[in-house]
Amino acid sequence: MDKPPDGFVLPAELLGLSEIEIISVKLTRAGSIHILVKSTREEILCQKCHKPTTPHGSGHQLKLRHLPMFGREVYIEIQSRRGICKSCDDHPTTTQTLDWFSHNSHNTKPYENYLMLQLIGSTQTDVARKEGVTEEILQTIIDHYQVDKVNWKRIKRIGLLGIDEIAKLKGHDSYITLVTSRYQGVNKILAVLEGKEKATIKAFLSSIPDKKRKMITAVCLDMCDNYLYAAQEKLSIDIPIVVDRFHVAKLYRKAITQLRSSELKRLKILLSEEDYKALKPAIKILLSKNECYSAEEKEILRPLFKYSPAIKAAYRLAREFTHIYNAHHKRKTAQQKIEQWIEKVEASETSCFTTFIKTVKKYENQICNYFIRRETSRWVEGINNKVKVIKRQCYGITNLKHFFQRIFLDLQGYDIFLNKQPVREN
Ligand SMILES: [Zn+2]
């Protein structure tokens, strides 16, 4: 079937391509649709002097992959017009381009945009297979749109800067560093760095354009010395470095978890089977909730706390630390409260917080900086959940470029590539 059925007229507007007229539509034996078009734009400006040229034949025919139609591959064929310049001394010729394709491309721009959209939440290999394009072509398009490294022009302001480590593969001792930003509720990925060395982080911080680096409002990080020293050495002293409260909470909760498991072991031996069984609802609450409880839960916990004053004391202290965080203290007050808490624990019989207290003393400034504007890196946790999904799909992080691209497209892809094609009304 070489000709379209009688009466089948394809309106040019439907193609979403401007300044063209359709000459013919052909369904090939292989099942793809080939649409021959011609440019309706008369003007060809000289590539050298940008003055109008005189028509001078046509270039060779281009075949460009376009958006699929009726489940079939679509190709646009166009013979570009050429013009010769009478103004320039050497009379150069110029081949006309329209705004929906560039000369060296094999695809129309709407199709490239469509491929980028397909890449959101999917791997490069999957999209290449589904669309029947080579991974090389896909990589060229990705390179063109700069989605596998940061494009500083796209970042208006950094706002909060987050630095976080991620294991490349679960249980393995090799890491990458994820650098992210959050401004006005919008999360962006800035870098995926190999390892977590100070020099690597410093090099990245240096690569941030000066103007943008100065506008960072705060840096949120894990309690990692490499990150801390890199930020201290490379960023202005006016930018507060904040240790995320949830990372701190994780540490004191880890301390009570250890105490709880050793105490429960002790009680299991000490108590009769029946008495220990009666503690099950209380244990369930301890396992499922952090240290703040309702009146009803407190009642259920009472017998357990009676058997183990150590658990009771530790949970109370943990709760007090959480309360310091929850109360809207000024930085100075918060610092006093934390120091009082440390004194109280050190004077008490509770010993499970010894390591935690050492950490608090070491990062006291950064922990207290939280109280300046109550910034957390919760958003980084949100990004980390995406990271987990990607890691599972790809069996770990092997290619940092592809990894950046996946996170970038997950976070910003829809904003950039999901623009509906305008429909022109007659
Ligand atoms: Zn010219």
What does this 3D model show about the protein?
- It is built from 17 helices and ten strands.
- The protein has helices spanning 109-119, 124-131, 135-145, 198-207, 210-214, 225-234, 245-270, 273-278, 280-288, 295-307, 309-326, 331-347, 354-362, 364-368, 370-373, 378-394, 400-417, and strands spanning 20-27, 33-39, 54-69, 72-84, 93-95, 159-167, 175-183, 186-194, 216-221, 241-243.
- A hairpin with a 7-residue loop joins strand 6 (159-167) and strand 7 (175-183).
- It is elongated and about 95 Å long.
- The strands form two sheets. Strands 1, 2, 3, 4 and 5 form a five-stranded mixed β-sheet that branches. Strands 8-7-6-9-10 form a five-stranded mixed β-sheet, with helices on both faces.
- It is α/β, with parallel strands linked by helices and 426 residues long.
- It folds into three domains: 12-106, no CATH class; 152-244 and 376-414, 2-Layer Sandwich (Nucleotidyltransferase, domain 5), CATH 3.30.420; 245-373.
- Bound molecules: zinc ion.
